[in-house]
Amino acid sequence: MNDRWAVAAAEGGGALLVPLDRDGRPAAEVRHEPDLAEAVRSRPEVGRWVWRSTAEIYPRLLDAGVRVDRCYDIEDAELLLLGHAGRWGEPRSAAAAHARLHHRPVPPDPPVRSVDPGSQSSLFEPQPVHVPFDALLEVYADQHRRHNETEHPGRMRLLTASESAGMLVAAELNRAGLPWRADVHRALLDELLGERYAGGGDPRRMAELADEVSQAFGRRVRPELPADVIKAFGQAGIKVKSTRRWELESVDHPAVESLIAYKKLYRIMTAHGWGWLQDWVRDGRFHPEYLPGGTVTGRWVTNGGGALQIPKVIRRAVIADPGWRLVVADADQMEPRVLAAISRDPGLMDVAGQSGDLYKAVSDRAFSGDREAAKIAVLGAIYGQTSGDGLKNLAAMRRRFPRAVDYVDEAARAGEEGRLVRTWLGRTCPPAVGADEDFGEAGLPQEDGPEPAAGEPEFAPGYASRNNRARGRFTRNFVVQGSAADWMLLVLAALRRSLHQAGMKAQLVFFQHDEVIVHCPAEEAAAVAEAIRAAGDLAGRIAFGETPARFPFTVAEVECYADAK
DNA sequence: AGTCCTCACCGG
DNA sequence: AACTCCGGTGAGGACT
């Protein structure tokens, strides 16, 4: 059933609980029970647990071996509801929400603690702010009401419910960790960077490359210092504006090859080297900290460990346990398919209704079979390409897929004009950055945002409109990327549920924007792959209603993550 | 000694 | 050809 109960840890220990009625109000007396986990465990009939913060309470339940099917995260919902009302930036804690209800001074949100890699505790639960249970219940009932005031109440309810499901997934991902072979990782580092010397300094291979760079310049150059490299090129008579790889690649100088190779290894050493291994991998698992909804578009972020930026070469260390497999599933062309579903463009829906190569299908319709041109045009429409081939091809897009292009154009226009912009489910874009509240410059128009580049006249004509255009590109992308994140949350929720209902040992162990990894016994792998595909279809129907658009996944069953692509 | 900023790279 | 959208990460250095 859909029965909801609210629960909170009691101050002196134990739990406070109460069933809720259809309006989200207490349907009985609040009861106190001595054991939080037991109170939840003993009520499997509860359809959804309503609580202040999943990150605070759910790890404690998991510690006690208690899993819940569904929850409602009040502080996450507060953030989404405030955003929908255009009140981005107001404190989202339950304490703040309660104060607002009673027109009392609103306390600021507590700061998030800094990263502590060695710690096992959650990074996102600063210090629990105590909120009396009855105050929490008032906030929930008010949120229940506020959903009905949104543009699409059904979608908004789906948004808060699915992001709450994401919170459950995140807590479980944090606990499970990604299988990680530290021995393989170390061997990889030795192979790529060279062995480390006892006295410190660069590892062998990197030291060799640094020497090659210095020899090519005829003087000692530290390749990891952009300023030093630019100066060295200047002394060699070559002007470079930066030491970015794409710029260096076009430079004709004997140092370039070694320099690029060094920078590649330097990046691996600093971001995913021995120190990283020490900090983030324990007991054969990499434990990042996932934060659902950490970006304004609804994409997740991780705090620490760089879990969403694991270099391809390092993925060789991600290896399933003996007898187990990694089922790696990647949503195919997620964003164009989502654009088809939200814009209802007939041509694009038609194309997205097939599970084959979407860009090929687009190219057959509008680009005489030129797949590359089609891909650039589709992505250009989504990203707001302003120059180059994308612009030329955009005209063809506009002819063949007018409603799709109109949809993102309208989002861009709304952004430029400072209107609210929302994803399909109702996640709302924050106002333009720039009016910095800390300095009380509320009256500043949005176009006074970021500082102009050095040397650029601060009030040059055209400066404002340039920033407005940047804002338009942002909101144009926001509706697509954000609606895709909406869909992906529903995928995660459906997948989590079906893996559990099937009674499998399979575990979600990784999530990255459009990709999931499930770790499972080899004999479950086929069923897991099917569950992922089914979750994608179900999420499409739930999020967007009946639509011909399909949401296929490329699924690989592997022992090593690096073999998935 | 701590904080903030820039750079350049990783991923989607 | 150029670096469009969304982020995290560390190092180094400038600054307080």
TrEMBL record:
Q: In its UniProt record, which GO terms are filed under biological process? A: DNA-templated DNA replication; double-strand break repair
Region annotation (Disordered) ranges: 96-121, 438-466
Q: Which residues form the DNA-directed DNA polymerase family A palm domain?
A: 311-524
Compositional bias of kind Low complexity? 451-462
Output the InterPro entries linked to this UniProt entry: DNA-dir_DNA_pol_A_palm_dom, DNA/RNA_pol_sf, DNA_polymerase_A
Q: What's the protein here called?
A: DNA-directed DNA polymerase
Kinase among keywords:
no
Q: Which organism is it from?
A: Streptomyces finlayi
Catalytic reaction(s) noted: DNA(n) + a 2'-deoxyribonucleoside 5'-triphosphate = DNA(n+1) + diphosphate
Keywords carried by this UniProt record: DNA replication
EC top class, in one word? transferase
Enzyme Commission numbers on file: 2.7.7.7
**GO MF annotations, alphabetized:** DNA binding; DNA-directed DNA polymerase activity
Return the Gene3D superfamilies for the record.
3.30.70.370, 5' to 3' exonuclease, C-terminal subdomain
Per the record, the coiled-coil ranges are none
